[in-house]
Design goal:
Elements: H1 2-5, E1 6-7, E2 10-11, E3 16-21, H2 40-54, E4 59-63, E5 68-72, H3 82-86, E6 95-98, E7 103-108, E8 112-117, H4 120-132, E9 136-138
Antiparallel strand pairs: 1-2, 3-8, 3-9, 4-5, 4-6, 6-7, 7-8
Length: 139
Amino acid sequence: MYHKYFQDSDVKSEFRKEYISLWPGWLGENNQYKLDSVTEHEWQRFHNFLILLESKFQIQKANCSTETLTKITNVSTVLDSYEQSLNKDSSQFYQFVIPELECVISEEWDYTYIVWYRDNTTIAALAPYIKKAGLCHFS
């Protein structure tokens, strides 16, 4: 199942990207300061998004070193705390697979997740959860 989504440790190039962020688009140079003022409450929106998804979809965590997917029964138990997240490097970022939607959700820098998808119906299915969590999405 891992190789359906990943080539080595990268999401396969056939997937398209949709960005999930606290903001409705790229900040640009003039608004970079906003990254330094994100509160724990705002940061928590990403966890809330995953918790909302878990109520409807099965979530699997990707482990690129072992090339495996592990079913998550409680996503809250695998997520880092706010303090932990501030001190980790990109090799520790999460990658989750939602088999039902055939997509990967990856944690990225600057308070952004990427949804890697093949079909626009995936984004349509995720949009209400993104909105309910207080996040924005754009491509």
